[in-house]
C-alpha cells in the first residue's frame, strides 16, 4: 500500500470495525497527554485497551493494568497503536509481528516506510500518520463539512 496517499475510507473503517483488543505503545498516565485522551476515548467506545509503558512505576492507566512491553501481554492483540517517535516504529513493528498482531497503527506523525513494509510483508495491515480516535468520529463530522461519506 502507498502510505503517502490517503487511505481508502473502507480500509480504515474495516480495521476499526474488526479489531477488539488494542495495545497502545507509549500510553501515558498523564491526563494532559494526547495518548491519554485517545486511550480514554477508545476504551469508552468499547475497545479492550492494553496500555504499554516501559516505566516500571507505571502499573495502571485509567484503571487498566499496564504492560511493560508487547511481549508480556498474555492475550491476543488485534492492533498495536504506536504513540512513540517515528524512529521507534520499526522495532515496534518487529514486536507486533512477534505477538501475531493483525494491525500496526502509527499515530499522527509516526511514519516509517521500512517498518510498514516489514509489517505488511508479515501480513499485517498498516496505517501511519493517523489517529484512530479521529477516524472513528470522521463519519459524524464529514457531512458537516459538506463532504460525502
Oligomer: single chain
Enumerate the spans where pLDDT stays under 50 for 5 or more consecutive residues: none
Strand order of the largest sheet: 2-1-5-6-7
Second-tier CATH architecture: 3-Layer(aba) Sandwich
For the termini, the CA-CA separation is 22 Å
Classify the fold: give the CATH topology. Rossmann fold
Total count of helical runs of at least 4 residues: 5
In total, how many domains does the architecture comprise?
Answer: 1
Largest sheet: 5 strands, parallel
Find the structural class using helix and strand composition: alpha/beta
**Helix proportion:** 25-40%
Residue fraction in strands = 15-25%
Report Rg.
15 Å
